[in-house]
Amino acid sequence: MDKRETKSTTRRRFVKEVAAGSAVVAVAGAMTSGCSSQADTLEKRLETLEKRLQQVEDVQAINRLQYAYNYYVEHMMKQEIIDCFSDSPDVLLDWLEGKWKGKEGVRKYFDVNQVPPVGFRHQLIPSAGLITVDPDGKTAKGRWYAFGGIMMPMPSKAGEKPEFSRSFINGIYEIGYIKEDGIWKILSINWIIPYGVRIKDGWITPEDIAGPMLKGQGGAPGPQMVPDISMDKNDLRYVTGYIFPHHFNHPVTGKPSSEAKLNARLKPIKS
Prior knowledge:
By secondary structure, the chain is of the alpha+beta class. It contains 6 helices and 6 strands; from the N terminus they run H-H-H-E-E-H-E-E-E-E-H-H.
């Protein structure tokens, strides 16, 4: 039993003992033949509330896992993605291009040796999540929309401004989850794409936005706002491929994520 499960179990035991103590007081203070049945009823109600509380906590943990997974997919942070999955042999990725089985299949698909090019973005926004926890509390299913955009750098010659393929994707996830040692993990993903939209023009990069500002060129007409601290020309937020640091640790491993290492590849834009 890990620390998370121990903490949860200890809290429930405390609640149960307090409630049981109250029941004893009630029984001691009552001189009717119905005292025993009242205590039994209170115990059953307590058990029901404990099950409901556990289910709420399970849904919250699954939500957190799913949201974290999608943040890692945005920049294809492969090790963090792999760590979201169970070690069970029943793990399955059911993609349009085929199926990958087990944790080794997940590692094969998300090959950490293949680093995505700088500027790759695959932002999928999970929404309308509907999670169903099985009665045993050990497995669950979830269904999500995952609408978002993909930006893929295209080959370009040295000195040329990089070009990108751009598209919007509407996807649907059916995802299986499993609880291992008190921690929820992904067991399976079934994914379809009902439609996509290819964008020829109109998708701009952070450099397109920040470049004019770094050169001192104004934005919208009218009075200009003067900041208390001027723009930092070394700020990597203006650079394509920058990963905004995550405030949270990995929901399965508990480790910080690797964006600092990936951001180290980037260089500030020239004003």
